[in-house]
Amino acid sequence: MEKKSFKADHVLDCRKMSCPVPVLKTKNAMSKMETGEVLEMIATDPGSLKDIEAWAKHTGQELLEVVHEDSNYRFYIKKLK
Amino acid sequence: MPVSEQDVKLIEKIVEEKLKKLLAEKQKRMAIIASKGTLDMAYPPLILATTAAAMDIECSIFFTFYGLDIINKKKNKNLKVPSLANPAMPVPMPNIIGALPGMTAMATRMMKGWMKKVNVPLITDLLDIAVETGVKLVACQMTMDVMGIKKDDLIEGVEVCGAAGFLEYASNADITLFV
Predict the structure, then answer these.
(1) pLDDT in tens, B59-106
(2) Which residues contact B35 (CB under 8 A, 6 or more apart)?
(3) Distance from CA of B55 to the nearest CA of A (A)
(4) CB neighbours (10 Å) of residue B3?
(5) Which domain holds residue B71?
(6) ipTM of the complex
(7) Measured between beta carbons, which residues in chain B are less than 8 angstroms from residue A27?
(8) Which B residues 29-48 touch A at CB under 8 Å?
(9) Choosing a second label site near B153 at 20 to 30 A (CA), which of A11, A16, A20, B17?
(10) Does the CB of B175 have a partner CB in chain A at under 8 Å?
(11) In this complex, is the C-beta atom of B131 within 8 Å of any C-beta atom belonging to chain A?
(12) Domain ranges (residues) in chain A
């Protein structure tokens, strides 16, 4: 199992949710955070792998790491602006 | 003072970089036309629009003809999946069976059941999110006149306009879709 290398300031559980909900909830959670804070978002939808990457790239946030364990994807996203 | 070729190249480079920067900063925009009133065709415009809002893309949906049912509060909780002339039905069905009474209701029930299983949001939930996140919902005036639909029949936060209004918005859009 991979080790968690980023400390998250906030955790968002999007397990068992399908497109587009994980992206919408991530956006919502990030908008309430301070710049520099890290969000850990947990999803089970395999589509979110590409979606969160695209979302972060487009909105100028930093996707630090994605950890895949069992059927969960843990996204560590840093708020840059 | 004569301008050297080197100066021209330098100026061109500066202008090019400035333009690139301006284009990158430009607010992206999407314009969608929603023209169908079946449950399956109500999802794509709403999923794309809410996701666009999450990606800081400005977005507007123009609801026209049967698409108006999506924002008609008397109808949008009961959008249906057609069982007739729908060869893509998950359980393939000959048209002669799809035409039987009750088949549309059955197809709709099946689709809703599958969607619930994987937690797809309801159409009304997506509409709420769309309004909250600033997606512009626009109703087609002509369709409202043809079908006798009043503004009170539509959900709150809807604007009304015609083809020119949509085209004016769409002419500055980076993405335009017809659903």
Answers:
(1) 999 999 999 999 999 999 999 988 888 888 777 788 888 888 998 898
(2) B64, B65, B66, B67, B178, B179
(3) 6
(4) 8
(5) 28-79+122-178
(6) 0.82
(7) 53-55
(8) 47
(9) A20
(10) no
(11) no
(12) 10-78
Closest approach of B48 to chain A, Cα-based (Å): 8
**Number of independent structural domains in chain B:** 1
- In whole angstroms, what is the distance from residue B34 CA to residue B140 CA? 10
Instruction: Tell me the C-alpha distance between A62 and B102, whole Å.
Output: 51
The amino acid at B136: K
B115 domain residue, yes or no? no
The 3-state secondary structure of chain A reads: CCCCCCCCCEEEEECCCCCCHHHHHHHHHHHCCCCCCEEEEEECCCCHHHHHHHHHHHHCCEEEEEEEECCEEEEEEECCC
Chain A: closest CA distance from residue B73 (Å):
23
Q: Which of B47, B54, B118 sits opposite A27 (nearest CB)?
A: B54
Closest residue on chain B to A24 (Cα): B54
Q: What is the CATH number of the domain that holds B57?
A: 3.40.1260.10
Nearest to B120 among A18, A28, A58 (CB): A18
What confidence tens digit (pLDDT) does each residue in B36-67 have? 999 999 999 999 999 999 999 999 999 999 99
- CA pair distance B88, B103, nearest whole angstrom: 15
